[in-house]
Amino acid sequence: MAKKQFKAESKRLLDLMVNSIYTHKEIFLRELISNASDAEDKLAYKALTDDQVPVDRSELKITIVPDKDKRTLTVSDNGVGMSKEDLESNLGTIAKSGSFQFKQDLAKEDKPEDIDVIGQFGVGFYSAFMVADHVTVISKAYGSDQAYMWQSDGADGYTVTECEKDTVGTDVIMHIKANVEDENYDQYLETYKLQELIKKYSDYIRYPIVMEVEDYRQKEKPADAGEDYKPEWETVKEWKTINSMVPLWQRPKAQVKPEEYNNFYKEKFMDWQDPLAVIHTSAEGAVTYKALLYIPEKAPYDFYTREYQKGLQLYSSGVLIMDKCADLLPDYFRFVKGVVDSADFSLNISREVLQHTRQLSVIAKALEKKIKAELLKMQKEEPEKYEKFWAAFGNQIKYGVVAEYGAHKEMLQDLLLFWSSKEGKNTTLAAYKDRMPEDQPYYYYACGESVDKIAKLPQVERILDKGYEILYCTEDVDDFVMQALGEIDGKKFKSATAEDALPQTEEEKKESEEKAEAGKPVLEAVKEVLGDKVKEVRISKILKTGAVCLSADGPVSLEMERYMRKLEGGEHMKAERVLELNADSAPYAALKKAVDEGDKETVEKYSKLLYGQALLLAELPLEDPAEYAQLVCSLMV
Q1: Which residues of 10-25 are buried (b: 16+ CB within 10 A; e: fewer)?
Q2: What are the residues facing 552 on neighbouring strands?
C-alpha cells in the first residue's frame, strides 16, 4: 500500500515534538499509558450508556511487554479500539486528539462529563518516536470484525493496512532505537526500568497495568531432605500489576487511617519522620480538584539554599504531569509537600508544561487558605506541635512578611511567634495585644543575639518598669519583620531602643530639655572626641540606671547594620549612630566633672570608654579592642 503523508507540517513539526517539547525521553511511556487509559474509559462509557455493550469493567487492563530479542516494547489495551478512519484521523494528523474529540462530543450531547479522559492534544502518541525508530499500531474497534495496522518510521509518512487481531483494543509496538554515545535506549527494554517509570508517572491510572516480571523464590523443601539441606532458590516469571490504581487522595477521609497518611508521606517524599499535619481536601464546582498536603516536622537539609525547589506534585486524572508545580504554593509556604489532582488543569501541547490558567490560580488560592487554617488550628489546639513547626519553618513565615514590601503581612501576621518578656515563652501578636494595658502606646520589641542579652539591655529597663511587655527578637530578619508589619489595628510597632519609645508628659519634656541644655558642654566635648564616629551625642530619654547606649537616626537601624555585616559586601552599610548618655548616672557625673575642670585627657579617655561600652551593648564590634582594653586597665592604676 502506498505510504501516506502526515496532514500536519511533516518532519519539521515531528522533530520539534520529539526534540523540544519533552524534556525527558522517558515521558513516552506515560503518554502511551495515558492514551491506553483513555481507550479503556471510552469503552467503559459505552457500557454505561448502552445496555447492548456487554463489558466487564474488571477485565479492562493495560499490558506492557518488552522483548529484548526483537528489541520491541509493546503497550496494549483492551479498550474501545480504532477503525481505519480513526487511525488516519487520530494518528495521521499530528496534534489531533481522539480524546479531545470524545469530550467535545459529550459536550454537544449535553451529557455530564463524569468520565475523565486524559489526552487533550494529539502529540502524546508521537513521543514514541523519541525512543523508537519504527512504530506499529494494530487496532480493532469495538463492534468491528476488521483490524487495521498503522506503521511509520517517523515524519516521512505512514501506511494503514488490514490485518488480523482476535480481540478488541490497540497494540502499540515500538522498535527501540540502538544505543548512541549519550543515550541508553536499552533501559526501556528492562523490566526494572519500566516498573520504575510506571510507578513514577502512572501509578494512579485507574486500570491495572500488568507486566511479566521475574521474581526469586525459595524452592519448597523436599519431604525427604536431610538435616544438612540447604535452601534452594529459583527464578519465577509471573504477571504482576505494577500500579496502585486508587490514589490515597481519591479515597474519602473517613476511610483513610492516620498510619496510611503517614506511610504515604514517608514513602512518597523520602522522610523518615511522620508529618506534623495532614491536609486532605477537595472541591467541586467551577474548579474541581483533590489535594493531599503535608506539613513536615523538620526542614530538609537544603531548605534554606538556592538548590531547594518548592512545589506540589501535579496530577491530571491520576497521571503525573509535573513533579514540582511551584505555582501552587506561595514562597512562604514552600515547606509544604503534597499532591494535587484535577482533570480541570489546562495543558498545553505537552503535559510537562502547564499553562498558567485561572484554574491553577483558583486552586493555589484555595490551598493557601487551607494551609493557613491548618496552622492556626495547630497553634490553638496543639501549641507544642506548633512550637515544633515554628522551630523548623518560623523564619520562612517571617521572610514571607518581609517579601514584596510587606504585601503578605496580613495573611501571615497571625502565624508569627515572638518571645514574651512577660510570659517567658513564645507568644502570638493576638495574645500580646490581649494582655496589653490600656495606656500602652505601642507594640514593643527589642532585637539582640539572645533572650538573656536583650533582657539586660539598659534601654528595656524603663519600659519593663512601666509594666509593658516586650517582644524579644533574636533572629536577623526580625527587625525587618517589625518594620514591614508597621502597625496592627492602629497601634504601631516600636523598638524599645528608640529615643521616643516612651511618650513623655509635658513635665517630662520640660525636664529633658533642661537636662539637655545643662549638658551641652559635656555633649559637645564628647562629640569633639568621637568626631564622625557618631552623628550626635545627646541626653537619653529612655535610660534609667544604665550609663550609656547607642541608638540610630535614619532608615538604617543598628539591627540592620548587624545583619548587613554578615553579608558579603554589606559591611559598608552603617546606621547613623547616636550616643545617648544618662545624665542621672555616676559615670556621667565623672565625665561632667572632667569637662568642668578642663581635663581634656580624662574627657577623651571617658568618652572613648563610654563609646566602647555602647558598642558592646549594641553587639557591634569595637573599632580598636586593644585601645579599649588599655583604657579599662588604666582605671585600675
Answers
A1: eeebbeebbeebbeeb
A2: 577
Is 36 within 8 Å of 43 (Cβ atoms)?
A: no
Whole-angstrom distance, CA of residue 605 vs CA of residue 610: 9
Is 60 exceeded by the pLDDT of residue 347?
no
Strands 72-77 and 62-67, sheet pairing:
antiparallel
Question: Based on the number of CB atoms within 10 Å of its own CB, is 363 exposed (0-12), middle (13-18) or buried (19 or more)?
Answer: buried
DSSP for residue 415: G
Contact predicate 345/287, CB 8 Å? no
Write the DSSP symbol of residue 139: E
The grid coordinates listed for 19 are: 526534540
Mean pLDDT lowest among 13-17, 381-385, 545-549: 13-17
Helix (H, G, I), strand (E, B) or coil at 343: coil
Rg, the chain, Cα only = 36
- The 10s digit of each residue's pLDDT in 371-397 is 999 999 999 999 999 999 999 999 999
Rounded CA-CA distance 444/15 in Å is 65
Q: Which residues is 160 bridged to in the sheet? A: 150
pLDDT-based confidence at 220, cuts 50/70/90?
confident
Q: How many residues does the chain have?
A: 637
pTM over 0.90: no
Considering only CA atoms, which of 129, 102, 99 is closest in space to residue 34? 99
In whole angstroms, give the CA distance from residue 612 to residue 623: 8
- As a whole number of angstroms, the distance between CA 631 and CA 613 comes to 11
